[in-house]
Amino acid sequence: MHDMKKLAALVKELEEQLVVCMRCGMCQAVCPVYTETGREADVARGKLALLDGLIQQIFKEPGGVHERLMRCLLCGSCAANCPSGVKVLDIFLKARAILVGYTGLHPANKIIFRGMLSHPRVFNSLVRAAGMFQGVFLKSADEFLGTSCGRFSFPLAHRHLKAFAPASFNTTIGRLNINGGSGLKAGFFVGCLIDKIYPNIGHAVLSSLKANGVGVFVPDEQGCCGIPALSSGDLLAFGKMVRYNLDLFSAGDFDFLVTACATCTSTIKKLWPMFAGDLSEAEKTRINELAEKTMDISQFLVEKTGLVTAASDGKNFDREKALISYHDPCHLKKSLGIEAQPRMLLGANSGYVLKEMSEADRCCGCGGSFNLKYYEISASIGRRKRDSILQSGCSTVATSCPACMLQISDMLSQAGEHIRVKHAVEIYADSLERDLDVDTH
User: Fold this and answer.
1) How many Å is the Cα radius of gyration of the chain?
2) What are the backbone angles phi and psi of residue 90, rounded to the nearest 5°?
3) How do the domains of the chain map onto residue ranges?
4) Which of the four CATH numbers 3.40.50.670, 3.40.50.10700, 2.40.110.10, 3.40.1550.10 does domain 311-436 have?
5) Per residue in 21-69, pLDDT tens?
6) How much is the pTM?
7) Which residues, 6 or more positions from 160, have their beta carbon under 8 angstroms from its beta carbon?
8) Terminal-to-terminal C-alpha distance of the chain
9) Alpha-carbon dihedral 373, 366, 28, 399, rounded to 10 degrees
């Protein structure tokens, strides 16, 4: 009965939000999926019309509608360009939750979300075990980019992947709780991809914070932010992940919560409060407080501490600067309006000059689970981003989202293009003095 009441409440919210859409079609011009398929059902207007009909028919065909709803990157391009201010992503996430509530969660998703991601210690142990044996299934595809491909014919064999790091960020750092000279202290939400695939980004965050005199709190065994479960409609697993991380960070005293993952930042700031319906009032208050002080690392460094410029040793004075370009992650620019701050981090490194690519804020095509389920569409969108990168003439492309880094690395590697893929905070940390070793004790 409780579940039915919850679903009924979501349906009512959908009905109230759907009437705002004027069916003007502005979303067609900016939807990357529609650009590839030309299908009305793949654009926001088509999905919203479908949902309106779905509600009126009392879920006569939920399976087919769910399939069409999943053909969405959740990039937010439609919402960012909607003249009526339709909160498209909110509507789609609620609709997915409603449909899963009626049809049930796919068994594979149940194992992943409720059996693994909802239990971070179990998930971390499984990843460590998988990392030990990944060499059996993967071989090097491009040493320059550090990508791998499958040794055997299996579903991911044609992709160029980033393997698990030899040691996760969590394993090498453990729990941190140190103070800094500035009087500011930041909690650091690491995120799954940085922890397990890009630990160097995590170390760059710590170096940047220390260089700016910022104390840091990093709890051990952090969990997923919950967006994979939420985007698949699993509110139960999402709630468990939120509660787990909420309790974990409640043990620390800090002024701001920083992340280096655009998706994690957007999820904590916007989606944790929005989908906290099953949590207690005390938990909702804590979520709102945490969301309020959550910031992308570039925004934090630019707006709260100011950027540190390392003293020049003269070695690079006459050297020609390398060209670097920047890709705007959808969840950072379109959801949070953060655009200038990452570029300021790049500008702090005197070894580079920024060369803007065309369509810098166009989606790279990753979209999390979308990349797994609709890889051909995802790759086609990704190749357009790859071409924009190549046309810029850069030797390094930076971004602020590890998922975007995976997608861009895949596209560049498959094309045989040797362009480094870095996080903006890595570029900033590289410019700092080399003796800023982080104290992990």
Assistant:
1) 22
2) -60, -45
3) 4-103, 311-436
4) 3.40.50.10700
5) 888 888 888 999 989 998 888 888 887 776 776 565 545 676 777 788 8
6) 0.91
7) 141, 142, 145, 147, 148, 149, 409, 410, 413, 414
8) 50
9) 180
